[in-house]
Amino acid sequence: MTRAASAMSALGALFRTTAFKLSFAYLLVFALFAFAALGYVAWNAQRLLSDQFTSTIDAEINGLSEQYRIGGLRRLVNIVERRSRVPGASLYLVTTNAGEKIAGNVGALPPGVIDRPGQFETDYARTEDADAPPSHALVRIYLLPGGFRLLVGRDMDESARLREVIRRAFGYSLLFIGILGCGGAWFITRRVLKRIDDMTETTRVIMAGDLGGRLKVAGTGDELDRLAHNLNNMLERIDELMHGMREVSDNIAHDLKTPLTRMRNRADEALRLAGTPEELRAALEANIEESDNLIRIFNALLMIARLEAGNAREELSDFDAAEAVRDVAELYEALAEEAGVPFEVAVEDDLPVHGSRELLGQAVANLLDNALKYGAPTEAGAPARPVAVTARRVGPSVEVVVADRGPGIPEAERAHVLERFVRLETARSRPGFGLGLSLATAVARLHGGALRLEDNGPGLRAVLVLPLRQTAGTPLPPSAAGA
Amino acid sequence: MRILIIEDDREAASYLVKAFREAGHVADHATDGLDGYAMAESGDYDVLVVDRMLPKLDGLSLIRSLREQKVETPVLILSALGQVDDRVKGLRAGGDDYLPKPYAFSELLARVEVLSRRRTASPSVEPTVYRIADLELDRLSHRVTRSGQEIVLQPREFRLLEYLMKNANQVVTRTMLLEHVWDYHFDPQTNVIDVHVSRLRAKIDKGFDKPLIHTIRGAGYMVRVGPAEGEE
């Protein structure tokens, strides 16, 4: 590329920048305003000046014609000659009806002018220096009784000078506006758009795969800072989600591949051995059971993903958490009784929350499931370990607690077990997928609450905290669930 | 029973047709919404099984149009969209039941049979007393007797038995019980429903020589006289 061409393209790039466009637009607007203002001033000044000229001329004509009426031609000529000698812009001329000059300081006029009564502008020459270039004047010609003509006028040089001043003002203002515009453009480019360019650059780096990158915050608290701050928060959230995704896909790879492989092997074996119809049937049934389990895992995963994405918000409505917890507790009470586990239910009345009864029910069911599965069983001979469900108001929240007296979860592991597919027993001998607590956590978050795991000394206390509905105290509609 | 399956996935549809025929029903198949509508409009079917996402005319519009044409054939919506709000939308459009995919055929069959029975039994006049063999359930006085002997049930046990007796001689699946008796739609991972049924069974059948509550292998439960097919 030649030097000229590259200079052109650099110029082109400059024209495309927001800074240039903005400055150019401002420049144009300011220039228009300046011209309009100056033009208005100039026009008014001109008009004022010519008004003043007209009224002076009229007054003099009146005065002089009055003198003529009183003292005749002699008196008029005297006054005119006296006034003509005073240097200044005033012009006088008295002629005969044939146009011959009697008195005055006007030397020459274009032919025929002196015969036109009225006010107009005309060229003229002064008496004193007939060689000087003709000047311009505003004159009034008056026919005196007796056929004499009287001319009174003002030289227009003054007004020409004013025009010159105004022209210069136009020039200077244009210059200043130009300088100001360029300065503004430079300032905007350097100070403001530079930061936007920096942001663009940073986002390019982030898009290239470095999700750890963050935008610079200048600390001035202006719009750009707020934008950078929000973008950073968004990046944080995206980073978190990406991290979660990676973890989930790792877990899926492990936890779903195992049953899929098992299914495949079982089918393969059944085909290979081609046993009795009963054996084939058993293999198929085992496969159906396994695929049902897989479907269940997928459903749970989809549900968690949906809750975490916040897609379930439109389904939320007002309901009584007390009723929902009691219903689930009743569902599991039978199970506990069957297993010989003492089961205590203590649910306060009237716990209005805004959310999903269905999802809260499922979350509590998952917690109860865990408590009965991991917290309740005991070695032969030992007294049974009780499981307790409570729901009560604590400050502005509802706390639903499922507590057991089992081995509990070591403090270091508590955050870990809330993650998807995490199960403490590495052998994975008991049924379950390790999704129950993740789902309960997602449900709590959807309601604007949280799931806490605490020590029950001994045992585990799973505390589901949900915010109470703000309009607490208003009567709830009778639940359709009934007794 | 004549069943019309409106489903665009040919493999899924032929599986359903075969399975319904094996279960002793007549099953037809339409591959798109318009064909399905034309066939359903005739009113020759006892139950329609409708997929939600169909070419040419989507499932919900199809159901709405049928209802506007006063075709009151019971409809079971079969859909990959299984969230609560999806179900609500489906039921509001005029569907009678909703089963999310993937499903177990036993569940689908049980629900379809319950739907068709409800149609023939004209739902507006529900009897106040359900009777099967010597078991009697009075819905108004909330009394249950067997051979004249009163059986005391908890309120939830009463509703469980009421639902089973209302659908006597039909398979009732565990999810149907959870939906109708507890009003929850989730999938309990443990056998909670089984425990409740076995407690009910202990009260109803214990001490009587003919059991009335039967477990149907791989499907659910059934109240009937005499052993049911597929019983464990």
UniProtKB/TrEMBL annotation, chain B:
Keyword Phosphoprotein annotated: yes
One protein family per Pfam: Response_reg
Record SMART domains: REC, Trans_reg_C
Annotated keywords: DNA-binding, Phosphoprotein, Transcription, Transcription regulation, Two-component regulatory system
Molecular function, one GO term: phosphorelay response regulator activity
Database matches in PROSITE patterns: OMPR_PHOB (PS51755), RESPONSE_REGULATORY (PS50110)
InterPro entries (UniProt xref): CheY-like_superfamily (IPR011006), OmpR/PhoB-type_DNA-bd (IPR001867), Sig_transdc_resp-reg_receiver (IPR001789), WalR-like (IPR039420), WH-like_DNA-bd_sf (IPR036388)
Residue span, Response regulatory domain: 2-116
Any one Gene Ontology BP term: regulation of DNA-templated transcription
The OmpR/PhoB-type domain, residue ranges: 127-225
CDD domains linked: REC_OmpR_CusR-like, trans_reg_C
Chain residues forming the annotated DNA-binding region: 127-225
Annotated positions of the 4-aspartylphosphate modification: 51
GO CC term (a single one): cytosol
Descriptive protein name: Response regulator
Species per Swiss-Prot/TrEMBL record: Microvirga thermotolerans
Organism lineage string: Bacteria, Pseudomonadati, Pseudomonadota, Alphaproteobacteria, Hyphomicrobiales
